[in-house]
Amino acid sequence: MSSGGRxxxxxxxxxVAATLAAYEPVRHNxxxxxxxxxxxxxxPNVHDGITRQSxxxxxxxxxxxxxxxxxxxxxxxxxxxxxLNPLGHHITNLLIHIANSxxxxxxxxxxxxxxxxxxxxxxxxxxxxTPISYLRARIGYLIAKKIPLFxxxxxxxxxxxxxxKHGEPVVxxxxxxxxxxxxxxxxxxxxAL
Length: 193
Fold this sequence. Notes:
The chain is an all-alpha fold. The chain has two domains: 1-130, no CATH class; 131-193, no CATH class. The chain has nine helices and no strands. α1 packs antiparallel against α6 (86-112), α4 (52-60) packs antiparallel against α5 and α6 runs antiparallel to α7. The longest helix has 34 residues, at 132-165. The radius of gyration is 20 Å and the shape is globular.
């Protein structure tokens, strides 16, 4: 293995170890009161696992004022594998975090050739370290490649807005003054920390 290959392996192992260390406390956690109960525990379409009926439900119905079939399928798969054991669900999230860190590192190191900086970015989840001139040269190519995803995201956003408009999540901007919305956003951010 070349020295560059060894460095790449070392960085990948470091990213996995850092992510495992950061998320180690999840092994003690139950389901989160934020939405796990409504989305998983109290939702028979999800906690019964993957069935023909539940897959059809995921793509054709809104639930809790949301339409996100991939999220439902992910929760169904977790229930299929782990049942309602929260540790299993947290393990899936941990594996997704690890995969995202590794994919970000591999993408940035391939685009820039700067392995250590790419590893730092993946560890910190920041994006402004890569050379801007290189990114500008690739931006047209990357945008063209991602247009189908942008279209799908726009369609999903419209469907989600329509689904949420029939419930409480979407309210008129005149019903909530700007200062109230800013205070709510800030308090939600700090509560989440």
